[in-house]
Write a structure and sequence with these properties.
This protein is mostly helical. It is 76% helix and 0% strand. The chain is built from 14 helices and no strands. The longest helix has 32 residues. The two termini are 29 Å apart. 27% of the residues are buried.
Length: 289
């Protein structure tokens, strides 16, 4: 059988070579380099920065025994579950379901605000939220007339979860809007005539058509959120490591703690977790579609 579009094997390989090269340079090589660094005691300065020693799986063992790593892992699970799996998923679906029935001015304004939060640079969005939640002159405390609450200090993870839900909902909203457009209107009308409303309508008619989209969206926002460094811009992992999710923990260990080898090992663990999550979601997607 000839190759696609009648191309011979040598020509097809030549066309694929640039893509393979880009993947190798920007994905495979950094991953392999991270694994190598993670097996050493490499540091930013000192003798180990010139001639690092191979420690095998010592850094991984250290991470598994490190209370700081356990704390960062738990906070990452909390951050992903709260702001992505539940927050962005639920809010994005609700917006996609409700906005088509809203008045045009309301729909346009809401979609514009949600998309604006998504397309603005992370630094700009983080500054806006810092201005909102700052204790002494923050907008929220000014409106509430209460300057005793330091939101980013007293409730750092709650602030990050709400912030990331607001910032990332646009993607889920757009994906679910496209997914809901595939639901046959005739089935929806028939279900309503039969008395199906609310959750029953969603469960029996809507969800069977969009469950593949739900799994795809959940996979993407889970991976993006698990690797999100934006929390550093708001809380820098504080106070006292109370919001130090794994990407921030890796940064602190590498550039502040001067332990590049250990940070690389933690990065490898995070990469492995991402791969496991991706495989699980893909298996569910294959079974349910």
């Amino acid at each position: 059988m000839r190759d696609v579009a009648g191309l011979g094997a040598p020509r097809a390989l030549a066309l694929l070579a640039p893509a393979v090269l880009v993947i190798g340079v920007f994905l495979i090589f950094p991953a392999l380099w991270t694994l190598y660094i993670g097996s050493t005691d490499y540091e930013l300065a000192g003798p180990n920065s010139v001639q690092p020693n191979n420690v095998g799986t010592g850094n991984v063992t250290k991470a598994l025994r490190d209370p700081g790593f356990h704390n960062a892992l738990w906070l990452t699970v909390l951050y992903v579950a709260g702001s992505a799996v539940i927050g962005q998923n639920l809010l994005g679906f609700l917006l996609a379901w409700a906005l088509p029935r809203a008045a045009k001015p309301v729909r346009t304004a809401t979609q514009g605000l949600v998309l604006l939060a998504w397309i603005l640079p992370s630094t700009v969005v983080a500054f806006l939220w810092y201005a909102l939640l700052e204790q002494k002159s923050g907008t929220l405390n000014t409106v509430l007339g209460n300057h005793a609450t330091a939101w980013l200090i007293d409730y750092p993870m709650l602030a990050l979860i709400v912030f990331n839900t607001w910032r990332g909902t646009a993607f889920s909203m757009m994906l679910y809007s496209s997914a809901l457009a595939t639901v046959p209107p005739a089935q929806l009308e028939m279900a309503r005539l039969c008395g199906a409303r609310g959750l029953r309508l969603l469960k029996d008619v809507v969800f069977p058509h969009i469950r593949g989209h739900v799994l795809t969206n959940t996979l993407l926002i889970t991976l993006w959120t698990a690797n999100d460094f934006t929390p550093y811009l708001l809380t820098a992992g504080g106070p006292n490591h109370a919001s130090e999710v794994l990407p921030v923990f890796i940064y602190d260990q590498a550039l502040i703690g001067d332990q590049l080898g250990y940070a690389a090992a933690v990065s490898a663990i995070l990469l492995a977790v991402n791969l496991v999550i991706a495989v699980l979601y893909l298996r569910l997607l294959r079974r349910r579609t």
